[in-house]
Write a structure and sequence with these properties.
Length: 268
């Protein structure tokens, strides 16, 4: 029986490691020859919120975390301006039904005529909207974002690799638990060390070589993010620091626990 567990663990380890290696190769091919971004400011009105001229808050969010991050940013932006109410239970409620730009108008449309909808549903509808795709298309045209067919999928590959490492540990534990009390299973457990070393070693290399696990920005786009996210930009409102941290690092960077809870809630 332990041979079956070992086979499953080895297959999972090899496939997940191969996927990470493939994602690294794709990333090296697509990010390396990135074009220089086009000069000039973007037309997105969210540029007032802490971004450097030429790279808006929405663009920072997309380059850092894709359309999912952009949706979180516009929801928090409207909540901070008291135009949306984001409940810790995961519901978004419209307070002021007037959007200041195309993405905000798409957000209101995603919430619907009832003025209230679960945040995950709003996020999914917003991700598929033309306004968000327009931000992505502009970044791709400027050489800052990867086109859809060239995204390496590093994040999902690393998640699969972590799951494979956990599967190896669970398989070894199952082997130990199912072995007869009088059996010497030291040699059997030793074989599980091979796929475990493979997965953990690949995880360590991925952390060293590929982190942050970006699937959205080219090298040129990555170089723009630190400067765009620097604090104290001239003319930035007080709220821009929190919005910029959210755009660059995700909901865990928010200091407001109710907003973090709202963005992480299922809305059920």
């Amino acid at each position: 029986m332990w041979l079956l567990f070992l086979l499953v663990a080895c297959v999972a380890a090899v496939l997940s490691c191969a996927r990470v290696c493939r994602a690294a190769v794709v990333s090296a091919r697509t990010c390396g020859p990135a074009r220089r971004p086009a000069p000039g400011p973007a037309s997105d009105p969210a540029a007032e919120d802490g971004s450097k001229p030429g790279l808006t808050l929405y663009e920072m969010a997309y380059l850092s975390g894709g359309p999912h991050r952009l949706a979180d940013v516009v929801l928090v932006l409207m909540a901070q301006q008291r135009r949306l109410l984001l409940a810790h239970t995961g519901w978004a409620t419209v307070v002021d039904p007037v959007g200041h730009d195309s993405v905000e108008r798409a957000t209101l449309t995603a919430i619907g005529p009832d003025g209230q909808r679960p945040i995950p549903a709003v996020r999914q509808a917003l991700i598929a909207d033309d306004a968000v795709r327009a931000v992505a298309d502009r970044l791709v045209a400027d050489g800052l974002a990867l086109p859809e067919g060239a995204r390496p999928g590093i994040r999902s590959a690393v998640r699969q690799l972590r799951a494979a490492a956990l599967l190896v540990v669970l398989s070894a534990a199952a082997t130990y638990w199912m072995a007869p009390s009088d059996a010497d299973i030291g040699l059997a457990l030793g074989w599980f060390a091979l796929p475990l070393i493979l997965t953990l070693g690949t995880l360590a290399l991925a952390r060293f070589e590929l982190y942050p696990y970006g699937d959205w920005a080219t090298d040129a786009g990555e170089r723009r993010l630190p400067a765009a996210g620097s604090p104290g930009s001239p003319g930035s409102p007080v709220a821009s620091a929190a919005l910029t941290r959210l755009a660059l690092h995700g909901p865990m960077a928010l200091t407001d626990p109710s907003l973090r809870a709202a963005l992480h809630s299922s809305g059920a």
